Amino acid sequence: MVAIMRELGKAMCFVCSVEFWRMAVLWTFSLLTSYWQLYTTRHSSKSYCFPRCKPQVSQTMRPVSVITGATSGLGAAAAHALSREGFYVVLVGRSSCLLSKIVTEIKTQKEDAYLKAFQVDLMSFQSILDFKSSLQQWLLNSEMHLSIQLLINNAGILATSSRLTPEGYDEMLGTNYIGPFCLTKLLLPLLKNSPIPSRIVNVTSFTHRSCKNYTEFCT
Ligand SMILES: NC(=O)c1ccc[n+]([C@@H]2O[C@H](COP(=O)([O-])OP(=O)(O)OC[C@H]3O[C@@H](n4cnc5c(N)ncnc54)[C@H](OP(=O)(O)O)[C@@H]3O)[C@@H](O)[C@H]2O)c1
């Protein structure tokens, strides 16, 4: 009986905590509100929604999409979906082993999928620079148009302890913001060179709102 009361007490404390209200209640509420807004916008006469068109795939021009963090989660799901749509999917990941695994997985489902994997660590400027050169070289060697059509900045981490990148930035800031910014800046000429409209998709999270000592961190 005492144990049950203790557990109940702990549960009550959790329900009264800021974390519970922020993550379980407010987060769910904002998610439902977003879905509701999406639904109403789609069904109203004044629609500001731009539906994504299927890519134009031809013998001479196969759209190229670069996905960071393509070895798991949302990145892997995007890689599966885009390869099904006919994109040449460039998978970017940290681990060569995980990259081979996802390539095999996609090939098992779609034998004729167009895939190319690059090992890149977004925490390292050198790795990003090397990737840009390798990507350009690969496009040239494959006799493809020197452009990309889609860049999905998806890779991200939720670091629970503070560690630094080779350049001395916080790892989470390096991976989630600085790395994708540098990558986008370096790949911009390839995106702009696209003969069809190109697009950049940034996948992010509002977890940054939990940051309490941001000013302290910046100083
Ligand atoms: N899942 C959610 O509920 C959720 C909610 C809000 C926002 N998001 C955002 O959605 C994105 C994807 O989330 P997810 O849940 O699919 O994540 P995930 O399954 O943990 O996948 C993250 C991917 O990023 C890669 N990655 C991490 N650090 C990297 C680095 N330094 N260089 C290159 N690649 C790196 C990982 O590779 P390794 O396997 O080598 O680590 C992995 O492939 C993230 O930006 C996240 O902030 C997710």
UniProtKB/TrEMBL annotation:
The family this protein is said to belong to: Belongs to the short-chain dehydrogenases/reductases (SDR) family.
Protein name stated in the entry: Uncharacterized protein
Pfam families, alphabetized: adh_short
Source organism, top-level taxon: Eukaryota
Keyword flag Cell cycle: no
InterPro entries assigned: NAD(P)-bd_dom_sf, SDR_fam
A molecular function (GO) term: oxidoreductase activity
Keywords from the named record: Oxidoreductase
Organismal lineage: Eukaryota, Viridiplantae, Streptophyta, Embryophyta, Tracheophyta
Organism listed in the record: Rubroshorea leprosula
